Structures are given as C-alpha cells and as structure tokens.
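Minutes, methods subgroup
Present: GH (chair), OT, SY

1. OT presented the first of two proteins processed in the latest run. Sequence and structure tokens recorded below as shown on screen.
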Amino acid sequence: MKRESKIFFLTIFSLIMLCAAFQTQATESGDESGKVAVVNGTVISQEQFDREMIAVQEIIEASGKSFSAAELTTIKKTVLEKIIRYELLYQECLKYNVEIGDDEINKKYESTRSQFPSDAEFQQRLKELNNSEELYKSQIKRDLAIQRLINQKFKPAVTDEEIRKYYDDNPDKFKQKSQVRASHILISVDSSATKAQKDTARKEIEALLSRIKSGEDFAAIAKEKSQCPSSANGGDLGFFSKGDMVEPFEEAVFSMKPGEISNIVETQFGYHIIKLTDKKDEKTIGFEEAKEEISRSLKREKIAESYNKFYADLRDKAKVDIFLKY
C-alpha cells in the first residue's frame, strides 16, 4: 500500500531526529575523562551518549538510506542536544521539588515490559540498549517528572471566541473527503518474480476467492492466508480517502458498494481480494463536532509556544560545555 510505505518512511526520519537511543563509533568520543558535555556542573558521559545513539543507528540501518558525513554529524548533534535538554528540564524538576513515587515508576515499567512476549525478550532488549532495570527505572522517573513539570507549569486557557475564530478562518480543514472502509486479502508477488511464481500466486488467490464465494468468512480467510500485516485484523484497512492507496486498488474499491466483494485485483504488491465494508460521503464537519478537537489543538499550540520560550530561556542561562568530537 502506498499509504503504508509513506507512513513507514516518515516515521523513520522523524524518529531519527527525535528518538532517545543510539550507538556511536569508537572514533566519535568526548574528552579523555569520558565526558561528552557538562550541563550546569552535571557530567554527560560518553556511555550515556552511546546508549542514546543505539536506537537511532537501528533506525538508520532499517531505513536502508545512506547518509552523508554532514547529515550524520547533524544527527549526533541533535541527539546530544536532546540529552542536554532533558538534563536541564530535570534540573528544573529538582528545583521545584517535583516528586515521582515508586508506584508510578513501577507501573510505567511494568506497562513497557508487558509489551514484550516474555520477560527474557524484554531483558534482552535492555541489554541491546546497554541498559539495566535500575537505569531504565531512573530514566522513567526523569521522564515522568519532566512531564509533570510541564503539566504543572503550562495550563493554557482557550476561549470560545478563539475556537470559533479558528473554525471560521480555516474552512478547508473541516472539509472531509469521501472515505471508504475496506478489508483485503493479499497474496504478495515480488517485482522480480518469474512467470511461474506469478502463476502460482494467481492460483492461490483464485482458490481463496472460490472459498469466499462458497460462503466462507472473509475475515477468517484473511487472518489465515493474507500476506499483509492487516491480516491480524481480518484484513481491515480502516477508513481511507482517494490518494491513500495505489491506483488499481483505489479504482476497484471506490467503484464498489458496501458489502460487495471484488474480483481479483492486481497491483505492484501482488493479488488482492477486496471487501468494501463502509462508505462516507464528502462533508463539512460542523462547528459543534469540531469544537473539542479545535480546543485541544489550540491548547497544544499554546503549550508548545510557552514551553519553547521557557526552554530557550533555560538554555540561554545554562552553562553548557561540549566535548564531543564529531
């Protein structure tokens, strides 16, 4: 799917610039004492910087993109600046006596651990990041403290007049294009596949279409046979608009009626069977429906503006010495 590829690469590059985890090469180091920076007297160690670099390196490798020396230098500077930012914010937490209890830390820790299939895999991931349970809990404490500080310091008010003005000034933002919700079954075919491989895939999708026409459940077959990640949800792709999917897929799905199942559709990803489950006509979202989301959006903007000014002031007043050699 075109949309899935787009989201994947946007995610990679946003994480490269913002993520908290990477590994640097041995030639890129701080001074002889192992310091990469000192922030108001607090040392940022080479070990800490290396730990922050691990995940970034993983993302770079997963992207398959090559970076120039200048781009990699920018990434390293961004990672170091992130560490400095968090240190300055945590120093503010200590200044304002922001307290985080053990129960909060343990709850967050267990929540993260539960996302792994087993404790052994969670421990392995900590090891890969040069981390430990104790160190990770310390990081959680800092993260929660900083979030609490921000929540306490920045509580913007948004008036009804501001919400109304935003709605009236941005009419295009409240025009919702027609959307469809569909499920699909995919038998993938590599772009370099031989005719024999394509014929095999075609026969497989034809057999699945025959099963569906004979009355078998579409979602059950999708879970069993589809080679798309959406198989976990019975093939459900959610709602999407024109322009979100590749052209042959869109041509088929936007010509269908809810409940209808397509014949075999071929795209560059392989062979699909599509089921249209819902359809929404183009409409303008009314003020009352949009009001709550506008309010949240304006609050986020005000928080971001206040936070940026607050942090810029912190950074200007801070004594920061950088020793990292790029």
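2. SY then presented the second protein from the same run.
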Amino acid sequence: MRRTVGSAVISFAVLGLVVAVALRQSDDVGRAIDAISAWAFLATVTLHVVALVLRSEAWRLTLTAVEGRSLPRRTVHAANAAAFLAGAAQSQAALPARVALLRRLAGADAPRPAQIVMADGPIFALELCATSTLLFAAAFAGLTDRWVAPAALAVALAVLAIARIAPQRLSYRPMLRGLAVLADRRRRGRLLALVIALSALTVVRIWLVLSVCGLAHGLGEVAWVWAAIGIFGLLPLGPGAPAGATLAALGQQSIGAALAAGLVLGASSIAGVLVYGLGVGMVCLAERVVRGRRTRALLGLR
C-alpha cells in the first residue's frame, strides 16, 4: 500500500513539474506542437500500434518456450492489452496486470507467475542490446560522445553473453523456464526478428517526432532519446516519463521543443494503446459471437 501511494505521489509530482515547465515554455511548446500535422501524429500512433502487436507476438513466443505449448493468440493479446492500459497510467502496474489476466484467461495452461515474469526477460535483454548497439554505432560514427562507444559495446556484449549462458546453466530451475526461448535456435531466431522489427519501428517513431518538433534527429539524438525512454520507463513517473526522457536527452537544444516531443510521444503511446486494446476487444467479441452462433446452430439441429 505504501509503495502504491509513493508511486502515485511521484507520478503526480512529475506531471506537475511537466505542466509547470510547459506553462513557462508555452510559446516554444506551442510552436513545436503546431508543427505536427494530423498525418504525422496518425503515423506515430500507427507505428506504436504495430510495435505493440509485435511485442505481444514476441511475448507469446517466449511463453510458448516455457512448457512447449502455444497459448491462444487472443488470450495473449488480451492479457497484454490490459497490461499496456495499466502501464499507460503507471509502468510498474503493467507486469502484475499481465500476470493476473493471463492466469485468469489461460487457466491451467498458463505458466507459473514467476515464469510469466521471466518470459519478459529475453525481450527486454534483446531490446537493451539493440539500444546499446545503436548508441555504439552513433558514437563510433562520431555522432555523439566518443566515451559512449566502449560503454555501449560492453553492455551489448554482456547481455549477449548472459542470454547465451543463462538458459543452459540455469534450465533446471522451473522459475527460469521463461528464458528457455534463448536455448531454442528456431524460436530464438524468430524472437530476434520480432525484436529487431519492433525496435526499428520505435526508432522510426522517435525520429519522426523529433523531426516534426524541429529538434536534431540524427542517429545520436534518436539513440539517446530511445535509451532515456527506456530508463525513465523503469521509474514510477507515470505518463510524465516520455516528457522527462526527452527533456533529459535533448533539453539542452530547446526545452520547449524537447518537452513537446515528449508530450507527443506520450500522447501517441496512450492513443496507440487505446487503439490496440479496442482492436483486441473487437476481435475477442467477434469470436464470442461466432461461437455463440455455432452453439445455437448445434442446439437447433438437436
């Protein structure tokens, strides 16, 4: 209870700070937001929706590797849709919501709670590796500080080493079966392809928002914003996390434009989550209607 209250207080404090900065930089923020066309915002939302679909497919793949059986696609997407909705308000709420709803929807077919939690590990590790690789490339090309290169390379190599060794050395622990996908060559390749695709969509989305907000949008800037969003997303900052991330990464260029970029990223994320959740809900409803009609038809035949 205390942790929940503390997270809520921090989240509201960050939102208050964002509002205060927005009011103080209202002219710059207004100009940056006015430069964003409806088509650009729609494209940003669309990119996020596709990334959410790919993330759910990646999660379903890691869950399949736990016990070697596939869960229904609608079940996994429904659980993730609820988790994304909870995470839009507070990132720390996403994981408990995902575990609880998957256990409720899948019943006995669902892995254990600890295994569900660990199933996120391979996806997070590969995304961290992708972010580190992008930072390394930017530093190597001279597009950001040179000192970043060895640090980013060290993180990427460490993640790859852990991903390679952990499934083999720790496979006897039931709780860690969520890492089993990394030991399966076929599934590991599919997971890597999914994570590369959703990472590419995230990079394009950040690049688009930075460019329309009038900020520098080279490889270095995109890499720093991506890394900052990942770090701030781990903190109990609520909807203010994207704005805090862009301010930390690019606030030295223009506080108003950086804040506007964060607000657009946050707003498009929430819109994308709502669209994704609505789409999943409509698919589940349609399947229920079809099953009901089939049941009535069978009863009619009898």
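Chair's summary of item 2: DSSP finds eleven helices and no strands in the chain.
Next meeting: continue with the remaining queue.
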